[in-house]
Structures are given as structure tokens and as C-alpha cells.
Amino acid sequence: MDHFLYRDGELYAEDVSIADIAAEVGTPFYCYSTATLERHFRLFDEALDGTPHMVCYAMKAASNQAILKTLANLGAGMDVVSGGEYARARAAGVPGEKIVFSGVGKTRDEMRLALEGGIRQFNVESEPEMEELSAVAQELGVVAPITVRVNPDVDAKTHAKIATGKSENKFGIPISRAKEVYAHAATLPGLKVVGIDVHIGSQLTDLEPFRLAYRKVADLTEALRAEGHDIIRLDLGGGLGIPYTRSNDAPPLPVEYGQMIKEELGHLGCEIEIEPGRLVAGNAGILVSKVIYVKSGEGRDFLILDGAMNDLIRPAMYEAHHDIVAVDEPEAGIEQQPYDIVGPVCESGDTFAKERMMPPLKAGDLVAFRSAGAYGAVMASEYNTRPLVPEVLVHEHQFAVIRARPTFDEMINRDTIPEWL
Ligand code: LLP
Prior knowledge:
Pathway: Amino-acid biosynthesis; L-lysine biosynthesis via DAP pathway; L-lysine from DL-2,6-diaminopimelate: step 1/1. With 421 residues, this protein is of the alpha/beta class. The chain has helices spanning 18-25, 34-47, 65-72, 83-91, 108-117, 127-140, 178-187, 208-226, 254-265, 278-281, 314-318, 408-412; strands at residues 4-7, 10-13, 16-17, 29-33, 53-58, 77-80, 99-101, 121-124, 144-151, 173-174, 191-197, 233-235, 271-274, 285-296, 301-305, 324-326, 337-342, 351-358, 366-369, 391-395, 398-403. The chain has two domains: 4-31 and 282-412, Lyase, Ornithine Decarboxylase, Chain A, domain 1, CATH 2.40.37; 103-274, Alanine racemase (TIM Barrel). 28% of the residues lie in helices and 25% in strands. Ligand LLP binds at residues 58, 61, 79, 102, 162, 199, 202-203, 237-239, 275-279, 314, 318, 374-375.
């Protein structure tokens, strides 16, 4: 459920008209709903009621500080994957003790930043990383709390580019080697083992792969405890999928996911961490764009929008489907027609949808890409020297620009021309 609904014949975000925002901010822009963000975060938090837990929002999904602060105000921790994300979370007021640091390629500088600034734990992904972290911690005279990310070798049954839990993926250490790796960790003076980490992929629409992975983690917890390791925390990653269309089967709900976690892991008495990103932000954001031209091609009409692949890369990168709706509510029963919906960027991959049935549209009309809140703005670029798409946050009847559209000068002046030219 989200808070982008038609009212009086036009699309609203909570109590604000999308057309009013477009008139003030221009298009394209991302628009997020506070109520939806909060609702989705609470669904996870409540799903783990009765179990000691922390929901660490995977901020890679949407990392504007206003979004982070909205969630942090509800008690969210953060899952970060770079020094930049760590700094951003801290700037948004998230305390170090609520930040977990994931990722296969943490550098010494990133480790230092987090150790000096405070960190809940590092989710370590390899033995070389373990050694490096121990050395950095020793240099600073501190001890780094860690989990080791295990790769459980389960098929997440999702898009190949976002599956991470098969043995051929670059993530984690093979679960078959876990005992050895934990024994190694225990010998490193700069580290303190606190738990186990697992994350098998994103946009999972079935609980079974999670269940299989978590069962393996439960067995491993007992095996490692038997060898004297103090496993007090289980980080279960993110990955629960969202409905991208109104028609397809809805993925399992957070409450069902939480129930399954309790069933599989409740007996271990561990603190549970989860790292949802997409389910918190995905349906809490839309991308609003304007039709520039309607162009008749051979056997098809093109809707040429002012938004492009640089603003929302998911269709080009993963063949992802986003529902696209007219901001002016179509009259009931109006005949729809197929459009190829494209952006102005100079490559054919800049296609959002082919033969998409839409009400008749004309130049100047606004459309909204639904489910664009996660992995939308954060993956945007300035390709074709198009300004980075701005972001707007709605809260009930108010809205605020939370990232402004850069001017051409701001974009261009970041280049420096060497003196020999
Ligand atoms: N934890 C870790 C260690 C992750 O790698 C990820 C996502 C998450 C949590 C959050 O997963 P979520 O709950 O959002 O599924 N750009 C792609 C998605 C890449 C996901 C990468 N890792 C897309 O647009 O679909």
C-alpha cells in the first residue's frame, strides 16, 4: 500500500497534488511519501516484535538524508556499503552504534572512518578483509566487532544481476568453509566476532530461498557456538520483493517474513538484524516526467518523455517493469492505446516500455513511474550532461525539495581545464 492515489481527477502524493509540485519544481523529479516510508519501516519493525532486533535500512536503495532522517526518527539503523554512505548516515544524525558496514571491498580508509566514528559491526566478506580490518583496528587501538558474511549457496530465484547467494557470486565466504574462517578470525587481535551475516539477493518474491538460507545459518550458529564462538547476533540481509504491478501475485508480506524468521531462528536467542532497502523505499517513491512529443513511427507511436535512462536506469539495466500512469486520471472506460515510452538520450536502450497500453496522451501531459523510490535516484547519472534529477519529499499537505536540480553552471563548473590547454 502506498500514498500515491487519484483524488479529484489527478494524482496526489498524500495531500499534495503532483501537478502542483511539477509546476514549482519542473520535471523530471522523484517524489517520496513520508507516510509510505514510515509505514513500510514499521511493518518490518513490528514483524519482529517480541524478538530483540534492529532494522538496518539498506540506504543504497534511496539515500537522501531527509529519507534517512525520516527513518532514523523511527529508530532505524542503517546498512552502509561505502565510506560515502557512512558519512551520509552520520550527517543525517544516525549514531555509529546503529550502523552496520557491508560490502566486499572495504578499503583501509573506509575501515578507519567507521572505527573512529563508531560502528555497530562490520559484515566481513573475506579473509584478506579480516586481516586488513584487524590491522587497522590495532593501529587505532580499538577492537572491531564483526560478523562474517556466509554464502549459503541457495538460488534466490531472482534476476541474475541481483542474486548474491549462489557459490558463483562474489559475495561472502562459502558456508562450507565457515568454521575455518571463524577459527582464523578468533586469532586476529583486532577483531571480536559477534555473529553471522547472510544476504542472498534482492526482489525475492518467495520465502523459501530465505528459509533455506536461514536454516543453514541456524545450523552454523550451533556449530560455531560448540567451537566456542560467541554468536549473539544474526544479520539476515535484505531482499524481500515488492509488487511492481497491480496485477501480479503480491510477494510475501513483512509479517510473514518475520514469522518465518522467528520459526527458523527464534530458538537461538540471538539478536536479529535485517537490512531491507527496496521494500521500505520502492513503493514510497515515484518519478514524475512530462511528455515532450508524441511521435508517430511505423506501426507504433512513441511517447518521448523528458525523463530518461540516466534518471531511472532499471528498465535499461534489468529489463525492469515500472507501471507508468497518467497524472491526470484517465476517464473511466477510455480506450487505451499502445505506446513505446522512451527518453531523449541518444541510445535505443533509453526505452522504458514497449507497446505499453496507456490512455491517449499529448505533449505537456505528466506521467508517473510507480515503484521508483528504490534504486531510482541513487542510480541516476548526468549522462548526456543532463542535470541530476531532483528529489521532493511530501509530508501530509507539505512538500520540500530535498535535493535541488543542479544548474548547468553547477554541473559544468566541476570540470577543470588544465593550464596547458
Ligand atoms: N543488504 C545487502 C548486503 C545488499 O547487498 C542489499 C542489496 C540489501 C541489503 C538490500 O536489498 P533489498 O532489500 O533492497 O532487496 N539495483 C538493483 C538492486 C541491487 C541490490 C543490491 N543489494 C535494482 O535496481 O533492482
